[in-house]
Amino acid sequence: MRDEILDPHNLVKNREILYRLMIRYVFYSSYLDISNYIDYIRSQLMYDGLEKFAMELSMLVKADQCAPSERLLHVMISGMQTMSEKDKSNTDDVLPGIDLEFEPEASALAPEPHSYETAYVTSHKQACRAGAFSFDGSLVATGSVDASIKILDVERMLAKSAPEDIEPGREQQGHPVIRTLYDHTDEVSYLEFHPKEHILASASRDGTVKLFDIAKPSVKKAHKVLTDCEPVLCVSFHPTGDYIAIGTEHNVLRVYDVHTTQCFVSAIPSQQHKAGVTCVKYSPTAKLYATGSFDGDIKIWDGISGRCINTIAEAHSGAAICSLQFTRNGKYLLSSGMDSIVYLWELCTSRPIQTYTGAGTTGKQEHQAEAVFNHTEDYVLFPDEATTSLCSWNSRNGCRLTLNSLGHNGPVRYITHSPNAPAFLTCSDDFRARFWYRRANNQ
To answer: Which of 72, 124, 191, 315 keeps 20 to 30 A from 272, CA to CA?
Structure first.
């Protein structure tokens, strides 16, 4: 009923909503619950001229007579208005997203990706293959084959790239790299920030996931370590931050309790992938999570029971799955594969409702590459390996946009977009990570 559109002046519509609520309440509530509110229901029925139903209800619960009143209607209207205002306040700061059911041709609100420019470049001693934005977009992290992790301040990177834009009195911003972490013994394969706290999770081919408290300026080592017997390829935090899903070169997905480090796996072996788990993502509500694998399948799991509820077999014509991303409304799932094609899947039908093509036409894809939405979900971004360029599409109609050179001297192994700003990060085998930003005065 939260989705009902309430008009305080439309009494017919409001009474329809009220009676649906009354029927639902009487049907699903126990006798004790009904007895607490039966007078309100009977009074409303009598006020609306439904004395017969009011009498039958009185006889059913053996209640005394009561006077007609529309108090229940006013209570409902007041409650729904309060709920609507609360929902509005909770979503005022949330960026709109893609919804092809209601806005198939909505106008893009954000600048096209080709208008972004490199604002800062940081280097590692070996290939850079992992990156992440913090939940508020204020920090980025990069990870390398040299086992190091860098954490950079977005505001400082922007200040370095455009000193003329710095506000008076804030000239001494400091170096953009605010933390450098050395606690792995092998390649850092994946990075993700905690959704609520200043904690960074790093996955590595050394078989560990390490949690760093980056709020501490002196942090160098992890304060918590999750150890596996296989190289770890990907992680995804539960939206509450209480759990973390981990994919490894083994076919069974693991879910850990972040606080106790207890490990959970599905109780049904036949539901697991047939090869290593390449990517995992929780939906925004955590009702679902999705996994992709070297076996070419995408699996959708129930977020509570941990059971597989759907398998999209050979989602990319049997090619390995490279990345997955849920839309903000949880209706769709974006996937990329080693076939260089990007699909947008409608989860309720398990069918691709949009296909983004054109990447990989000049050469076969050799390495995994991410497909991501921009911060408004107006565009889909995907690095073309052969040309070291950025392919982008209108997310709603699949129209391919202007190609953008990414300026790297090697394959782009990872791309991630800011959750709330026109900025993205590219990580490459040329040892560098580039921070891209679209300034307001860019045309």
So the answer is: 191
Q: What is the rounded distance in angstroms from the CA atom of residue 290 to the CA atom of residue 283? A: 8
The single-letter DSSP state of residue 229 is: S
What are the counts of helices (DSSP H) followed by strands (DSSP E) for the chain? 5, 28
CA distance 337 to 296: 8
Q: State which amino acid sits at residue 249.
A: E
Concatenating the DSSP letter of every residue in 286-334 gives SSEEEEEETTS-EEEEETTT--EEEEETTTTTTPPEEEEEE-TTSSEEE
Q: What would you measure as the largest C-alpha separation in the chain, in angstroms?
A: 84
Determine the pLDDT at residue 99: 83
Tokens of 375: 């911060």
pLDDT digits (tens, 9 = 90+) for 332-380: 999 999 999 999 999 999 999 999 998 877 777 899 999 999 999 999 9
Predicted pLDDT at 95? 62
Residue type, 428: S
CB 234 within 8 A of CB 218: no
Q: Provide the pLDDT for residue 3.
A: 45
Token couple for 26: 């009487």
Contact call for residues 152 and 432 (beta carbons, < 8 A): no
How many whole angstroms separate alpha carbon 191 and alpha carbon 235?
A: 7
Domains and CATH numbers, the chain: 11-91 (1.20.960.50), 113-437 (2.130.10.10)
Give the pLDDT mean for 232-257: 98
Q: What does the alpha-carbon distance between residue 300 and residue 324 come to, in Å, rounded to a whole number?
A: 11
In 3D, which of 193, 195, 373, 418 has the Cα closest to residue 286?
195
Q: What type of residue is 84?
A: S
Indicate if the pLDDT at residue 319 is higher than 90. yes
Identify which of 339, 313, 340, 343 has the alpha carbon closest to the alpha carbon of residue 325: 343
